[in-house]
Amino acid sequence: MSFVSFEFVIFLAAVILFYYLLPVRMRWMVLLTASMGFYVLSAGKAVLILAVMIIVSFLFSLVISRNRKKIWLAAAITATVLPVLITKNLEHIWVSNLHRESHNFIAVLGISFFVMQMIAYYVDIYRGKTEPEKNPFRYALFISFFPQILQGPIPRFSQLHEQLNEGHKFDPDKFTKGLQLIIWGFFLKLMIADKAGIFVDEVFSNTDTYKGAYIWIAAILYSVQLYADFSSCVSIAQGVSELMGIRLSDNFDHPYFSLSIKEFWGRWHMSLSSWLKDYIYIPLGGNRKGAARKYLNVMITFIVSGIWHGSGLNYLAWGVMHGMYQITGALTEKPRDAVYRVFGVEKNTRGYEWLKRAGTFFWVMLAWVMFRAESLTLGIEMICSMFSCFNPWVLFSDSILELGLSWREWCMLILSVYTLVRVSELQKKCSIRDRIMAQPLIFRWALYILAIVVIFVFGTYGHGFSAKDFIYAGF
User: Fold this and answer.
1) Cβ distance 370 to 324 under 8 Å?
2) Which of 20, 67, 262, 444 is most buried as measured by Cβ atoms within 10 A of its Cβ?
C-alpha cells in the first residue's frame, strides 16, 4: 500500500480516529495494530518473515544485555543479516548465475531498513548505551512503526521508543504541521519525481537508442527524481507521524547545496550515513590509525553502502566511486585550492560556492548514472556516451518532446524544480512551516487547499499517469 494512494488515506484516517479515541495508555497498541496491518496490506505473506525476525532479534537483545560477549553480538548480527542476503540476492543469483527464468520469490519490503534498526539496537545494548525493551510487543512496535518501516528514516531506539509508547494528546498545531509535510511530500512526488521519472525511464530503458545529450538530461533528471522521490516519502512519513504527535528524524539537509562529496554525505540520507559511520566506519578504526587506514576504512564503508543498496555490480561500483571521491577529495584539497587562487576565485564568495556546488553535483550525478543503470556494463557505456557523443542539437528540436513529456509538462516540471530550489534556499534562513502557522487561519487553509488542487490538477494524476512506487522501496 503506497503512501500515494486513496487506500492509504482511508487507512490513515481510521488509525488517527482510533488513536485519539482510545485512552492515552492504550495508544501504542493502536500503533502496533496499525503497523502490522499496514505491513500485511503492503507485503502480504512477508509479514511472517518480519514477525520471525522481530522475535529472534528480541531474544538476542535479551541475551546480549545479560552476557555482553562479542560472540553473542556476532551471532545476533549474522542471524539478522542472513535473511537480507538471501531475500535480496536470491532472484539475482537465480537469473544471472544459474540462468533460470525469473521466479517470484517473496520480497520482504523494507528489510534493509528494519534490519539496520535491529543491528543498531544490538550494538547499543552491547555498548551499554541502551537498556533492552522487556516487552516484546513494544519492541515489535519500534521495529514495525508503519510510517518509517518501508523506507526509513532509520531510527535509533533512544530516538523513537518513548515517543511511540507514551501516547500523545491531540495538538492542533502539530497536527496542522503534519498536514503541511504531507502536502509537501505529495508535491515532491507528483509534481517532480513521477514527471521526471517518465523521461528517465525511457532513456535508461533504451540505451541503444539514446546517446549523448539524452543521457545528460536523463542523468540530471534522475538526480532530481531520486532526491524528490525519497525526500517525498520521508516528508510524508514525518507528516503522518506528526499527526499523532510523534517526530521522526530528518533524513535530508539540502544535499545538492553541498560544497564537497564529504559534505554531501552529511546531508544525504542522513540516517543511513550516521548508521554507516557509527556501526561500520568507527568500529573499523575510523581515522585513528593513520591516513592509509582511514582511506581504507572509508572505502570499505562505501562498499558496504553499495552492497546494501543491491546485488548488482553497478551498486558495488557506485559505492566504490563514492569511496574514491572521498579519498581523492582529501588528497587533492590543497592543489584544488591553489587552482582556484590562480583563476582568482576566492573562498567565501558566491562564485566559489557555485563552482563547488556544480562540481559536487557533477560527480554525484555520474555516480547516479551507475546506480540507475541496469548493469555495470550499461552504466559504463552510458557514462562514456555522455562524453563521446556530441549531439546538443537535440536540446533545440522536438525530439525531447517525444519521450513522454509534452512541452506543458516540461514547463510544469521546470517550474516545480525551481519552486523546490527556492523553498530550499528559504529553509536555510527560516522555518517556513512556522511562518505559515503565524498567518491568519483563513489564509493558511486557503493556501493548503490551493496547493492540493494544484498538485492533483497539474501533477501526474492530472495527466492520466499513475503514481510510481517509491524508488527506495526497492532497497
Assistant:
1) no
2) 20
Cell of 118: 535491529
* Residue 404: DSSP 8-state: S
For 64, the grid coordinates are 546480549
Question: Does 322 participate in catalysis according to the annotation?
Answer: no
- Contact between 117 and 153 under an 8 Å Cβ cutoff? The reply is no
Contact yes or no for 316/306 (Cβ under 8 A): yes
pLDDT tens track for 395-428: 888 888 888 888 889 999 999 999 999 999 998 8
DSSP state of 349: S
Nearest Cα to Cα of residue 109 among 75, 136, 146: 146
Q: Which residues of 180-218 are buried (b: 16+ CB within 10 A; e: fewer)?
A: bbbbbbbbbbbbbbbbbbbbbbbbbeebeebbbbbbbbb
Contact 326, 302 (CB under 8 A): yes
Asked whether 468 and 197 are in contact (CB, 8 A), the reply is yes
Cα–Cα distance, 289 to 128 (Å, whole number):
25
Convert the pLDDT of each residue in 54-85 to its tens digit: 999 999 999 999 988 999 999 999 999 888 77
Check pLDDT > 90 for residue 339. no
Gap between the Cα atoms of 363 and 384, Å rounded: 14
Q: Calculate the CA dihedral of residues 335, 336, 340, 346 and round it to 10 degrees.
A: -100
Cell representation of residue 166: 507514551
Asked whether 213 and 159 are in contact (CB, 8 A), the reply is no
Alpha-carbon distance of 111 to 85, in angstroms, equals: 10
Per the residue annotation, which of 92, 99, 168, 309 is the catalytic one?
Answer: 309
Is 313:334 a contact under the CB 8 Å cutoff? no
* 176 phi and psi angles, rounded to 5 deg: -65, -40
- Residue 345 is given by DSSP the state -
Report the mean per-residue pLDDT for the chain. Answer: 88
Contacts for 46 with CB less than 8 Å, ≥ 6 apart: 39, 106, 107, 108, 109
CA distance linking residue 148 with residue 61, whole number of Å: 22
Does the predicted model carry a pTM greater than 0.85?
A: yes
In b/e form, how buried is each residue of 274-293, taking b as 16+ CB within 10 angstroms?
bbbeebbbeebeeeeeeeee
As a whole number of Å, the end-to-end CA separation of the chain is: 16
